[in-house]
């Protein structure tokens, strides 16, 4: 039963690749900036608008995530909360079909992308809280790494399917018309269906966690925030390093998110990779990332999450600095894949770091705080990317914004005490 629950839980990550890989990173975001917003009038580029839209979505997540996680813990409704926000994400993905290849539709695409980011992050809060239910202290690193690797492998399969059937050549193997971006809009529908089908096993195999108390309180919005601040003060008194970790991880996770959000866009605009070839790069990148997540999970269970996170961030900084001074597709293939190798372990071990720290019965709330602290500064990397791009009239300059945020995360994490191992 435990193995069945782990595999079913991992299939949600497998399906989530439809949003992370297809919508946010390799296909639809590139379509928005390279096609829909290509002829956008005015001094502000579509890349800058994309950065600011994702930043605005982060503000909404910061306000909503901890209260939603706290409510799911209190009532024993983590799976229900995951299901509601997963469904909302899928609906927003499906509506992207309406975004035609015309700059007048850019606002609609950015709005739906922003809403999808909000819904997806809220679903992830309760989903991540389930990790402790299906693992033990001795296996939590490998289980988390398995989930991340499932996401990467799901991305590989979905990228190959969409590239062959809808994108390669002129409309793919199915010959879907490219007028008005129809083939890319159909990909959004396929991605929505992929996520919906893949998420089903989680809700069939994994039981709901019991509520935090026999008679859970019903709190309004104001009372929920009041409880949140009370719990934060207690958490700080009990283990302030947990609070320090939330702050440090907020910084470097914003940098990790920016790598996914802007990686494909920069590949096309800076390093000269053809828009169609971005998907091939995405397939290889997901293989490398999956291997990184699996090996990182193995190391996590042996040496703890902090060394894995720190080493991964330093590796990403090294690759990013080299990329800043190189040009051409070959450089991006080599050092872009180097970045991908380190992203998976950093993400997976961040999840296990917090899961090891979370008091029993408060996982959802703590992962809500995890999302909130991350999103409290989530405007930082996208805004810096947009700002550097605008100030220097160069998409390459946006890389500096990502590197600054990653470096700040490493510095902030360095003095934080690692969880008991």
From TrEMBL:
TM stretches of this protein: 12-33, 49-69, 81-99, 105-131, 143-166, 186-206, 243-273, 279-299, 308-326, 366-391, 397-416
Gene3D superfamilies (alphabetical): MFS general substrate transporter like domains
Signal peptide start and end residues: none
Annotated keywords: Membrane, Transmembrane, Transmembrane helix, Transport
Major localisation: membrane
Membrane topology annotation: Multi-pass membrane protein
SUPFAM superfamilies: MFS general substrate transporter
Entry keyword annotation includes Transmembrane: yes
Pfam families: ATG22
UniProt domain Major facilitator superfamily (MFS) profile: residue ranges: 1-420
Subcellular location: Cell membrane
Protein name: MFS transporter
Organism: Pseudonocardia ailaonensis
């Amino acid at each position: 039963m435990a193995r069945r629950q782990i595999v079913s839980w991992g299939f949600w990550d497998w399906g989530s690749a439809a949003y992370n890989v297809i919508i946010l990173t390799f296909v639809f975001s590139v379509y928005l900036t390279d096609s829909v917003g290509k002829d956008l009038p005015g001094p502000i580029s579509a890349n800058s608008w994309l950065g600011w839209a994702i930043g605005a979505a982060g503000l909404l997540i910061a306000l909503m995530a901890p209260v939603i996680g706290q409510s799911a813990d209190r009532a024993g409704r983590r799976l229900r909360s995951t299901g509601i926000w997963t469904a909302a994400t899928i609906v927003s993905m499906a509506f992207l079909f309406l975004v035609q290849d015309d700059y007048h539709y850019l606002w609609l695409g950015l709005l739906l992308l922003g809403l999808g980011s909000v819904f997806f992050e809220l679903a992830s809060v309760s989903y991540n809280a389930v990790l402790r239910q299906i693992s033990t202290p001795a296996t939590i690193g490998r289980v988390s790494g398995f989930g991340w690797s499932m996401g990467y492998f799901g991305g590989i399969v979905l990228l190959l399917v969409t590239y062959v059937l809808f994108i390669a050549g002129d409309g793919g193997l199915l010959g879907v018309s490219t007028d008005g971006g129809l083939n890319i809009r159909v990909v959004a529908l396929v991605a929505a269906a992929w996520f919906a089908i893949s998420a089903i096993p989680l809700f069939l195999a994994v039981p709901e966690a019991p509520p935090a108390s026999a008679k859970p309180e019903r709190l309004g919005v104001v009372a929920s925030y009041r409880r949140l601040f009370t719990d934060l003060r207690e958490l700080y008194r009990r283990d302030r390093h947990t609070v320090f970790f939330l702050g440090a991880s907020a910084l470097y996770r914003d940098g990790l998110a920016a790598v996914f959000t802007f990686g494909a866009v920069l590949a096309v605009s800076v390093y000269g990779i053809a828009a169609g070839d971005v998907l091939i790069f995405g397939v290889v990148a997901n293989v490398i990332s999956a291997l990184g997540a699996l090996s990182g999970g193995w190391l996590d269970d042996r040496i703890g999450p902090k060394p894995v996170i720190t080493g991964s961030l330093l590796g990403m900084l090294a690759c990013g600095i080299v990329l800043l001074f190189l040009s051409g597709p070959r450089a991006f293939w080599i050092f872009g894949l180097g970045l991908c190798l380190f992203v998976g372990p950093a993400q997976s071990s961040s999840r296990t770091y917090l899961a090891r720290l979370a008091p029993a019965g408060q996982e959802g709330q703590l992962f809500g705080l995890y999302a909130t602290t991350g999103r409290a500064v989530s405007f930082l990397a996208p805004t810096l990317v947009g700002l550097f791009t605008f100030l220097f009239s160069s998409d390459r300059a946006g890389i500096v914004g990502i590197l600054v945020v990653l470096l700040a995360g490493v510095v902030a994490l360095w003095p934080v005490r690692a969880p008991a191992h």
